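Homework help thread (please don't just give me the answer)

Our assignment gives two proteins as sequence + structure token strings and asks us to describe the second one. The first is just a warm-up. Here they are:
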Amino acid sequence: MVLVPVAPGLASSSFVAFESGPVRPLAMAPDGTRLFAANTPGNQLEVYSILADGSLQHLTSVPVGLEPVAVAARSADEVWVVNHLSDSVSIVRLDPLPGRVVRTLLVGDEPRDIVFAGPGRSRAFITTAHRGQNVPYDPQFTTPGVGRADVWVFDANDLGTGLGGTPKTIVQLFGDTPRALAASPDGTKVYAAVFHSGNQTTVLG
């Protein structure tokens, strides 16, 4: 038997995680009482109470899908979590604590972000790639002029009876790798940022 000494530097080196990049990892409850965070390497939603002095108190951790990258809160007790690797959205109820996933929506490949807009902020918009095991269409991979970015739209008050939910519509965008979404203050418009848009734009400053 040969004993090989381990260098102190190696023994004490920190672990470096490798996971999908977060897009909207933090969200605050509309009433300002809670902060929600996507724990990407832990595959969990972390829930914090916002105290009167602004400090945070951890309340609970709720297991969701694989590699959550975006969070959106409908209320202090209902949070939607986008799972990048699972191609899904977990709907989490926090009343009562410790909370649980009450519904899982199946969406396109590599979902990235979510916002609520429309009447009463009741429409959920989710960016995905124009492909995946859950898409209800032929992606036409070899057809010129077909966009490679989708925005799935769900009615938060009527998710449908299907196992993975039923989207109201899927909006196709001419681009690739959709990322962030933003809603106008009145909720009548939703803007999508496409990572590989192919429009030759850049930012100068």
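The one we have to describe:
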Amino acid sequence: MKSAFWVAVTSIVAAVIPHGVTSASTFSDLPIVIAIVDDGFNHNHRLFQGMVWRNPGEVPNNTIDDDANGVVDDLVGWDVSDMDGTVLPAVDRQSKLYHGTFIAGVIAEIIRDQLGERDDYPIKLMFVKAVSDASIRDTVEDGYRGLDYALKSGANVVNLSWSGGLVDDQAKSALAGIADSHAFVVAAMGNHYQDEQIYPAAHSQVFAVTGVDERGISIDGNLGEEADLTAMGAETESADVASNNGVRRDRGTSIATARVSAAVALMKLARPSITKLEIESCLSMTSYAVDKLNPLFPGQFGAGALNISAAINCVKAGLPLNHTFSNPEGVLLFTKGKARKPELNWRIQPEGAYSGVVLKPFFEGKNKSVQVTISSLDGEHLWQGKADALPHELEFSSHAIQIKLQAKGRKDFRFGMRYAFKLVQLSKRYCQGLQRIEAEGVYTDGSVGSDYAHLSDCQWLVVPPEGENAQITFTKLDTELHHDIIHLFAGETTEQRNLLLKLSGRELPPPLLVKGGHPALLWFVSTRENSGTGFEFKVDYVEP
């Protein structure tokens, strides 16, 4: 039985656009093109029927660069590594170069689920192969060249279900090109279970995606404040490169990224004129908060988990004018047209421990009557004034805020605010860094009877008076045995040759005497999982 979370994040309205109707917008805006930059594709797979992009500027197989884009016969895409129009990997490489076909299949399935069975779809897939058949590696080594081709070929959405690689001048040039294009670029944060910046997802113009499973729990993917959104990355069945009907199973942030790319294309289909900022706003502010489901990783999933149907509805109707959001970050956006009331009341109250919020407001328009009030939820005014007088950045210590806007007059305007709540570093809740101890006394890890923090990394440097020894006596000890460890070193560093002992569990050791009048360093490191109530030790200085 699927969890309630699974049902919620995978349920989609029956049809975004009714069958037989291409779009409420002009036909000249179509098709919506998703470029998938990956390791290769079987573009004849049954899942892609009616969705394969055909280059309108190329005459098939005439060996002429008809559209003058610098490449010859790029009919369904291009192999930027082998410099030809064959995007299908060589047969002897297909056991390794299956990823692109699989990811394209994930996108195609979502489009088909949304729009039903059709002979011709208003969303097309452009296939950009970025691994040479002769390469001994399986990584998307020419991914940035593929990104460049996709942008120059007019893709509306670019899917980069890969991460890592050298960010050289060519990569920087390709990434810089995003800002000048109309393409919305989505990239995976990677599957390495770490918190670090990895490109292309870390680039400011790229929408970074991490993954959760069917319960909303983090999968083995990168997390961090760079994440913009999370999506389902649980094991999924999709297209296999080896045959036109083949299937295989996989999991990871690549799949989560593909889901977001499909959602963006459907949002563009609902309103092709939508801007990148509007897409980001609707994706972020309609997402499901997942911090409560992942208490060890608060603020590491971006705005929350993708909600496709709500994001599409947001494209059509805009954000609600009176609403409480639980997203720890996002983009609030309000455009006053003739049909919209010039009043709003937004409350932002994320789950979890946050120390404050950073706001980056913006206002466009000539309506001088727009009044904005930002306050804490207990009514304290944090900022009040005309919208066109808002500073570029505001920072408050509140863990929840309310934003009210009132306007008179008929002039249109756009008001928005990018925000991010500042994460309380739970690993530093009770102790952090290095504490220098020169006086005798009793010292603790700081948790005072509560469970100590996960991922603690704390040090105490005991410095005895000249000519005296340090005696360290533990009076309390409760850590996870063999996992959350107190290391004792002779000296001021954590060099292994100076390690005297390791402590964990609940059994108190005998008093520890550090001889020679040298300092002693205690270093406490805890893991991501279980914890205890911590420890207490007494420091005495004794004569040799």
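TA reply:
I won't write it for you, but here's a hint about the kind of observation we're looking for: The chain has a mean pLDDT of 90.
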